[in-house]
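Dear support,

We are seeing what looks like truncated structure output for some complexes. This example has two components. We would appreciate it if you could run it in full and send us the complete token output so we can diff it against ours.
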Amino acid sequence: MVRRRNLTRRELLKSSAAAAGSLVLSGAAGPLAFAQGSDTIRVGVVGCGGRGSGAAHDCVNSSQGVKIVALADAFADRQKGLKDEFKVPDDRCFVGIDAYKQLMAQDDVNLVILATPPGFRPIHLAEAVRRGKNVFMEKPVAVCPAGIKMVIEVSEQAAQKGLAIVAGTQRRHQPEYVETMKRIHDGAIGDIVSAQCYWNMGGLWVSERQPGQSDVEWQIRNWLYFTWLSGDHICEQHVHNLDVINWAFKDALPETIHGLGGRQFRTDPKCGHINDHFGVEFIYPNDVRTISMCRQIEGTDGNVSERVVGTKGVTNCSGVIAGENAWRYTGPRGNAYVLEHTDLIKSIRDGKPLNEGKRIAESTLCAIMGRESAYSRQQFKRTWFLSRCTLNLLPPDGLKLSDAKPVPAFAVPGQYQLAGWVPEERGRKRG
Amino acid sequence: MSSPVNNGISGISAGVVGATAAVLGQTAHAQGSDKIKVGMLGCGGRGNGAIQNCLEADPGVEIIALADLFESQVRRTRDSFLKKEQVKDRIKVNDDHLFWGFDCHEKLAKCEADLLLMATTPAFRGRQLMAAIKAGKHVFTEKPVATDVAGCKEVMEVARLAKEKNLAIVAGTQRRHQTSYVETMKRIHDGAIGELVGGQCYWFGGGIWFNGLPENSQMTELEWQVRNWYHFTWLSGDQICEQHIHNIDVMNWCFNGPPAKFTAVGGRGWRSYNQDQIKTAKDVCRKFNNGSEESWEKYNGDIWDHIYAEFEYPNGARCLSFSGHSPGTGRNGEKIVGTKGVSNCSGSITGENAWSFPGKGIDPMVQEHKDLIASIRSGQPLNEGQRVAESTLTAIGARIAACTGRVITWDWLMNTSKQELVPRDVKPGPGLFHPIATGRDEPV
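Here is the complete output from our reference environment:
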């Protein structure tokens, strides 16, 4: 499996060198890393549930020379599938809420897949970068502004250390999206004047509370439905579409946010406290206003897509442009869930590590801002949110699976307190 | 009160059609006609406002009849206008022209008024308009004109009948009579901002009154519901229909017609948690239930507190509609986006053909009555019936899309939907309470 002939001196294991405290840049780190062994990508999976398992398979299938060598999960039962399949030895399978620390202490692991509930992502990413690991991390990457700031800061450290970070917003690696975006950025649809994106769907799985489960264990097993873990569904799913719209705007971000939302149909306590729908207006620079709509209600009409409108044409962002420069993508499609790993590993092996950390943090930020605006029904500016919103949902140090953690009330306008919002500001115009 | 001039106008009202009517109209005008006899249906806040606007619009206007569900409202309205120095001489309402009860619109339609103003609860507009047009009256109607699909279709039928009978229907979507809007729309339609590719409209506010029962009230449940009509979808059409229709109408105006498709989300949110409102609802519950609060929730109304909708117009443009009531940031207005520029629809165009409205503001609430009366006098009565029915149905289409979680098309609304929320025979008695929409109701 190992493609030694493709090995370069700036090869992937420089990450281990960084972990060992070396500050030398990649070109110099190569020999040390090379000396340590092979060019094998030795993967540790943190979070072995559905998405973690999917990512592990995609990663192994994406490139030659990839091995799953260590696993971490809060629960042994969730880990068993990957453990059996990839024959990971017992002493490389770590269980518990702090299992990620043990996994990242394994020196030979040079890439980690972070696929736990998103609430843990910032602290897991920080530990991974501290330990000098390259990272593939699922989206979203935080659930609160405190987490966003942490991810951005750690991503800068990763860049300094020459570590790769790729995020599971796979559309960024999907050829029809990539090719369409090139054209949008080259002016094929003129100036962008309007855009829409949607994640409207039915319901999702629920993990019902079992006898004897603590609050924290049940919430982590049923993580979709708790804002501190998933960020609510606008964050957990719709971030894909919001990321595409940001991409169309050349990663310019919305300046003003105003959202609506509620918990209208999915009110069963087994579904935690999150909303079942959001509608958010994101206002980009030059007062370009966009529609964002997402819904999780069983039996309703679905639509997962994006659309960008310019002065010269319209596009679905994924292979079709109509208007003055009409065009249709005809190239290979590929499996973007695999391609994102191919691109990641190639970037590591080429010594030109991709770093998508800041970008995915910003798209996640958009989702979080939409959520907080909808919860509170307040319109605010991104600059306000980043500088003044004090919301911090990061898991506390020393969190234990046995801990009690009451489910918060769902967000009722007029009752929900937007953290950091000062009532005197109400009278001030915020655009 | 009766004069040859009045008869002349009434002659038009009586249903003379086509060119003949136009000639008659001119004749009436040539005769120096100055009296327009007006009857008012619905003497609440907006009804009183409409009387004032109509009196201001034309010195020939005389109020000759008042009708409302409640006797107290018609008497209070007459008393209040008789105290206004500037207009009291034109308030000529005899006791036998005060009408109340659920059939008051039928009695009003039989009186000798030329023009009826309608500001009752939107649920009953269709049947009231039908009675008025059949009786040969010109009409000014407040918006919206229905709360359900059947009601919109009834108003479209009324509009056809009014055209046949050469009668005026002007609707209280006053932006259509506001110079800043009219002048901007001309330019938009002439291509000043290029092809229309997007837009937004908003009406998000802090809340609305919630009426309890007056002391010693003898009202039945249904009468109380009508008094507290805003909070029941079958009576108001919900806020998107009752209030946001103004902005929706402007979007339709931009596109010269209604959307082809609706996608929407929404919910009741805050309205189930508004403590002041809950207190009143419990109070009403006790009064109708021998002191029991058990079923208070149904008295708390069934409307939602927000709907976020996308309208897709026939040319493919997708526009945002953002409406509701709750604590938070308020918004009101419209924006239309074209390939060559952007406009607020009311006096400002930016882009290739930048322009701003140089004129002075007028009061559009008066202007709509001026335009109406001028059109009657000219024998070429304005007929906004079809258009306001379309805008009402646009709001209802978005509401249905939100309440069902389904993509709703205009074609489905017009040809398939059987939605009818308002009973044909509404009488004092037990209330009509519908469950709160779930977000995945079955489309009807």
